[in-house]
Amino acid sequence: MMLHPDRLFPSDPAQRDIARRLYAAVSNLPIVSPHGHTDPSWFAKDEAFPDPAALFVKPDHYAFRMLYSQGVPLESLGVPRADGGAVETDSRKIWRLLAQHWHLFRGTPTRMWLDHAFETVFGVTERLSPASADRIYDQIDACLQSPEFRPRALFKRFNIELLATTESPLDTLEHHRAIRESGWDGCVITAFRPDPVVDPEFEGFQANVETLGALAGENTTTWAGYLNALRNRRQYFKEVGGATSTDHGHPTAVTADLSTAEASALFDKALRGTVTAAEAELFRGQMLTEMAKMSLEDGLTMQIHPGSFRNHNPVVFERFGRDKGADIPTRTDYVRALKPLLDRVGNERDLTIILFTLDETSYARELAPLAGHYPALRVGPAWWFHDSPEGMRRYREMITETAGFYNTVGFNDDTRAFCSIPARHDVARRVDCAFLARLVAEHRLEEDEAAELAVDLTYNLVKKAYKL
Ligand SMILES: [Zn+2]
Q1: Which branch of life, at top level (predicted)?
Q2: pLDDT at 372
Q3: pLDDT-based confidence at 59, cuts 50/70/90?
């Protein structure tokens, strides 16, 4: 066996015993996954995943960015090229490359997630290595060909109560519609991610806004028509895709609260493609405030995921497109950046805005104080580069003293890698129980309070924040 039952628990015996007791009460709770990037067509079509490389390597930017950093070309890992150029298609070869470089993942969460999936999903009990690569490939491949390993069966086996995907307003939600019409009882919902139509610097912005108008039956050459189209698509996402949230992946947390005349003039410029970088930033900021105002009307919880410098590597972007492991965190300001939005909606009790960060220095200095004051704000869980045991510990240590536990919202797996979902939620549950165990051992909490908190952090807070 690769997974130790006490993994991630404190090594101090007294704390470890408390952590074991807390974890025992939450380990089997259902998974609620309110934000992520799995493909809804998996659950609509319920086709077998093709092979181990297609499942674990080709779509996982955590996996291939590490190999790329050590000189392995993305082509050799089967990552599709934007120009349709040749890439490796032999899945066994791709798998062997992963095995050959397995040592690179020592000490990383990717290693924990993959080991967890190999063992708990596919029954693999030996470590991946060049010697075991073919055996493990054959074992996983054989599993994938049986009906118990189809997406819907795995969804049930993973004990997923709800899974949210993320779609652009230009998406027809055909897969979500198909899931509903199929009569399957798994709960897969969408989330509204308008970046392609609210960011003047997004590829194809002008054409995207035009398509938005066509889909919504609104004239999106005017500011009022554009806002109506967005309102219309939000409603569509709620009705057809079951959306309860929006998501915003902006480079910064900048917000603005312009007059209608100013916003309208800026929109015209964006449509003409003549905005400067500073004006594009201002426009995105205005749109965050517009989205918050719409959330007040339609009740969608708002998620802000700022601070990623996307597509940092132009060579990789040109050759392979977005989301290829070349996104790098930046320093992020919230206190000044969010003020226009908070001046407008910060005191609303019926609005939930969840703030995420890739800049851990903002936890104790900015995010916990903000969420510990404004009724509309919550702090989202440790995200992306910090979705790791150490990242989660730092998060609890830096957030709790000022924001408490109840201004947080449970865990998000935020993943494209379906089989890593149980692993990621298990890591979060274990790290939270370890943190709570320390508070109990230090006589800062009674154990019955810690037990209640463990359930809240695993299950109740996420359902409340996302209105599920
Ligand atoms: Zn995400």
Answers
A1: Bacteria
A2: 98
A3: confident
Residue matched to tokens 């802000």: 304
Residue 391 contacts residue 358 (beta carbons within 8 Å): no
Q: Considering only CA atoms, which of 75, 77, 76 is closest in space to residue 53?
A: 77
DSSP letter string over 345-409? HTT-SS--EEE--S-TTHIIIIIHHHHTT-TTEEEPPP-GGG-SHHHHHHHHHHHHHHHTTTTB-
Give 416 Cα–ligand 1 centroid separation in angstroms. 9
Q: How far is the CA of 100 from the centre of ligand 1 (A)?
A: 30
E strand residue ranges, 152-236: 160-164, 188-189
C-alpha 37 – ligand 1 centre gap (Å): 6
Burial label for 255, CB within 10 Å (0-12, 13-18, 19+), is buried
Q: Over the chain, what is the mean pLDDT?
A: 97
Question: Ligand 1 centre and the CA of 36: distance in Å?
Answer: 5
Q: pLDDT tens digits for 339-356?
A: 999 999 999 999 999 999
pLDDT, residue 424, reads 98
| Gap from CA of 30 to ligand 1 centroid (Å) | 21
Q: How close is the Cα of 136 to the center of ligand 1, in Å?
A: 30
CA gap 383, 402 in Å, rounded: 19
The pLDDT of residue 1 is above 80 = no
Q: Ligand 1 centroid vs 18 CA: distance in angstroms? A: 33
Q: Residue 2 has what pLDDT?
A: 85
Q: Is the per-residue pLDDT at 364 higher than 80?
A: yes
Residue pair 359/307 in contact (Cβ under 8 Å)? The answer is: yes
Token pair for residue 95? 């798998």
Ligand 1 mean position to 197 CA, how many Å? Answer: 17
- Residue 16 Cα to ligand 1 middle (Å): 33
Q: State the distance from the centre of ligand 1 to the C-alpha of 249, rounded, in angstroms.
A: 8
For the full predicted model, state whether its pTM sits above 0.85.
Answer: yes
CB atoms within 10 A of CB 133: 19
The Å distance, Cα 451 to ligand 1 centre, comes to: 29
Question: Quick one: CA dihedral 269, 273, 277, 282, positive or negative?
Answer: positive
Among the ranges given (53-62, 153-162, 283-292, 380-389), the one the predictor scored with the smallest mean pLDDT: 53-62
Cα-Cα-Cα-Cα torsion 316, 318, 322, 328, nearest 10 degrees, comes to 50
- Cα 420 to ligand 1 centre (Å): 15
How far is Cα 202 from Cα 251, in angstroms, rounded to an integer? 11
